[in-house]
Amino acid sequence: MGRVCVVIPAAGEGTRMGGLPKQFNTLGDSPLLYQTAWAFECHNRVDDIVVAAPADTTAHARHLMSGISKLVRVVAGGATRQESVAAGLAAAPRDSVIVLVHDAARPFIEAAAITEVIAAVVLHGAAALAVPVADTVRYAEGGFFTGEASRRNLFAVQTPQGFRRSLLAEAFESCVPDGAATDEVALVRACGHAVARVPGRAGNFKITTGEDWHRAERRWPAFARRNYES
Ligand code: C5P
Fold this sequence. Notes:
It contains seven helices and eleven strands. It has 230 residues and is α/β, with parallel strands linked by helices. A seven-stranded mixed sheet has the order 5-4-1-6-10-7-11, with helices on both faces. A two-stranded antiparallel sheet has the order 2-3. A two-stranded antiparallel sheet has the order 8-9. Cytidine-5'-monophosphate binds at residues 9-12, 23, 52, 77-81, 84, 103-105, 182, 206, 208.
């Protein structure tokens, strides 16, 4: 099948607590970034891990990832997520055939979901996890609703997103580097390539707010027991 590399963008400023971004905060017994990387360390089809960390914290990130044997590089991320992923992609081993991209802020990623994304990439060249939107959705501006929208066929997209390496490289080379794309699916689709949808998991949420952090702390012990203890 060829080598599989996961790029973990972890260069967001996040919610600063104690002077470091949230990806360095402790969840369970280790930093969030480590817990997220651990899911890929344990996955038998993932060979290499590349992390994009804030430029002034790469040494710190390298130190705290010392237990991750698949780590090949910690690179300096950029001002946008797009730049961080581009830096990570450039550092992926040359013989990587598939590149996954997974947010550092999504530690609740199950092995089965990673397996399903890789399988869909083998079949279709590009794939991402997504869950149907359950709420009613509507446009708003200036404090008032301005337009209706249909939630039919509408999905909230998660990570990992996976791509044949050549496809992702082509997307980064040909896209306008304005940093506007909030994920890699947008870049690859802009190049005209179809991206397969793999059923996501409600539990695979992105830790963004303080409330998300509390939710993560409550859920982590049971998740870690179920997934990482025999
Ligand atoms: O900003 P957003 O919530 O979409 O971030 C998703 C992921 O991208 C996070 O893991 C964050 O650390 C990362 N990111 C990055 N470089 C940036 C901005 C975000 O690596 N400049």
